[in-house]
Design brief:
The complex is a heterodimer of chains A (about 550) and B (about 270).
Chain A: H1 3-33, H2 44-79, H3 86-108, E1 122-123, H4 126-156, H5 164-195, E2 201-203, H6 204-232, H7 234-237, H8 245-258, H9 275-287, H10 289-309, H11 327-350, H12 355-358, H13 362-392, H14 399-426, H15 446-475, H16 506-529, E3 534-536, E4 538-539
Parallel strand pairs in A: 1-4
Antiparallel strand pairs in A: 2-3
Helix pairs in contact in A: 1-2, 1-3, 1-13, 1-15, 2-3, 2-4, 2-5, 2-6, 3-4, 4-5, 5-6, 5-8, 6-8, 6-13, 6-16, 8-10, 8-16, 11-13, 11-14, 13-14, 13-15, 14-15
Chain B: H1 14-40, H2 43-46, H3 50-57, H4 68-74, H5 92-101, H6 106-109, H7 127-139, H8 145-152, H9 156-168, H10 185-188, H11 220-232, H12 242-247, H13 252-264
Helix pairs in contact in B: 1-3, 5-9, 7-8, 7-9, 11-13
Classes of the chains: A mainly alpha (about 550), B mainly alpha (about 270).
Chain lengths: ~550, ~270
Amino acid sequence: MSSASRRLVLAHFWVAFVAFVLALVLGEWQMFVRSPLAQWVNNPEHYYRSVTAHGTVMAYVLPTLVAMGFGYAICELALKQALIGLRWAWLGFWLVIVGTVMAAATVAIGHASVLYTFYPPMIASPFYYFGVVLVVVGSWIWVALMAINLRAWKRANPGATVPLAMYGNVAGAYLWAWTSLGAAIEVLVLILPASLGLTDTINAGLARVFFSWTLHAIVYFWLMPAYIAFYTIVPRAIGSRLYSDTMGRVAFALFLVFSMPIGIHHLFADPQVGAGFKFVHAAMTALVSVPTFLTVFTIVASVEIVARLRGGKGAVGWVRALPWDNPMMLTLAFSFILLGFGGAGGLINMSYQLDETVHNTQWITGHFHLIFGGAIVIMYIALAYDLWPELTGGGPLHAGLMKLQLWLWFVGMLVLTLPWHLVGLLGMPRRMAYYDYTDPAIAPQAWTVIASTIGGAMLVVSGVLFLVVLARGHARAPGAAGARPYTFSRPVHEGLRPPAVLNGHGLWVAMMIALTVVNYGWPIAQLAALKTASVPVIPIGTR
Amino acid sequence: MMSDHDSPYTWSNAGFRRSVTWLAVVFVACVLVGFVWLPMAQPDFSARGLWASICKAAGVPGNWGDPGEALRTGGQSTKVVLDRPMARAGAADAIGRGATLALNCTMCHGAQGMSLADAPNLSGQYPEVVVKQLLDYRDGRRTSSIMQAIARGLSDAQIDDLAAYYASLPKARIAPTTYEDPLPKLVRTGDPLRNIAPCISCHGSVDQKLGAPWLEGMPRRYLIAQLNDFASGTRRNDSLAQMRNMVRLMKPEEIAEVAGFYARRGSPGEGH
């Protein structure tokens, strides 16, 4: 990579990871103050301020910056050409920074405790929404640059197969461009007019439908860097080969098509949306498990190759022969276990009827922390470790510290989230600022909150350790690195050409848009036309 | 010979053809199950025939069921939008004008805003609460033969002045909580499983939400009457139905308990 691009990627990663650790501390504070270990802060407003900041950083700032930085790195490393539009990329970066600071400051002074999902008719200060819009606009510059760089490469290499890393990267960019549109419309058309005082009512049902447009596929935008790492980094890092390059393309294409038009499963309890649409969205949510299972199968097959080469025997006995001392192997196993728990819970949430039993309980909080905080973020950590020597020019990172950090993250995440699942089944509501443990109905659940607080503390220690490992690697004198060029995984059968539809994104983007139109068109039109759907706004931070 | 490597966007390309066909099949199957098959299993869905059940599954039923007397006749619950500036303390001249106007109110609400007649205390009440209730009376969104008649004669400016005056008076003293009189469960923690929020999360102590009145020392009978009116839907000027949704699931003895608790928390002066 050129040194200019290295600086760009490092800037994205450093800001992302420092913000991530600060938000981790906020999350742990929330867990602590509502546990029996602490005196209650006596002001729920402070609690919701913290929840808003934690969610906004974790959901928008961290994954957006990681996807952007990783995307720029892939452009140079996979396409082997200089990044086109470096100055535009810096502009996008600064837009994200300015937006983050603007939103964070508004949250900190208590004018935006609406949580990251906005929750109309609650209305925050317009500066919060402007901040979020700037973050999204900055990321749209990245989307455009990814498309432009791929086009330039295709022109220079007519008929060549797009490298898998870039194929997934651009799929993620297109997915983000289309899915962020829902929240953008919600903010620009419905929320900002109310926040600026131009109207005093808001169509809350319509706003929720628009947010659901973004809310589910955003998870798959978060997930894309992790999946790119599964396919293109993990097999190489453990000395194996990728079992099937085409399967990776199929997974990315299916995510594009099916992760987008399914967000109404977040509105199962919403009486304004018809039951028929809820069923269609639930059924298509189930289809997202297909690319997930394909990926698990392909990656397990890929690691089996190296286990067999190392002398692994038997139907499952080869697992012992895997290179377990390799941090990437460890990360992959952790990520799959967390994905397994989170995915199993997710099957409950996506079922229209089963969801009734866990709706709005701590079960949901447990689910998305396992999937995002667990399976996805641990892969962000791993891909940062893997790219770090290339980015900083330093030598390999401290393996012992890395493994300690990964173990802490894995165990901490399980200790945090498994109690949430348990009490969620017992009916503990989510988004509660405090619990009264003197109540005999709640007292038996007090220990679970202490357990989650301990899990959260492990995550904070792990997060700080993560920064320490990166800082040590960065501080080392440049030039210590070996001259080995950075590579992505090689497939078992090199040189095979995938079907033409899997070498481009056009068909899948068209399908994504078509499914969105049929799955969302009617609910949006119906709610927009419903005159009685508007309710008075509730300004936040008033007294 | 596979035609996978043809131009990807023509029907002759096998990948393109299969992908589009399968997506269409999956979508049509989902729609048939969600809009036709599953609704047919529900008697209340299928009672009016296939087309009506499809409309219902799409979220547009022919009618939404019997909305009840209050909803049929009541219209919108309130037109007042609570806004930040309404909560500001009034200027000295507004308080002075309000004090003069308030002479009309003393018969029921007390000379110093502390009622002897089971009308609500207004002393120290938040200004936006007084403004909202008077505007609702004036619009007919809250009913009372006396208050509607009085409110109809008030201008917006006069309502603001009255609110400024009452907000400037001292609040009823809070009697200290004793071991003999702990906070009732609903006041302190609500009942999450019935979706009843704790009183103190809006009415002061933990948080004070815009538009939620100061309750300490309010006459017990007034509080019980208002809670019952919210429960039955007779009173419905709470925007977004916050109070109606809280009270509907409360038992009569719970209503009496929380009302009694807040009534006891006032000053023992003025005849109580």
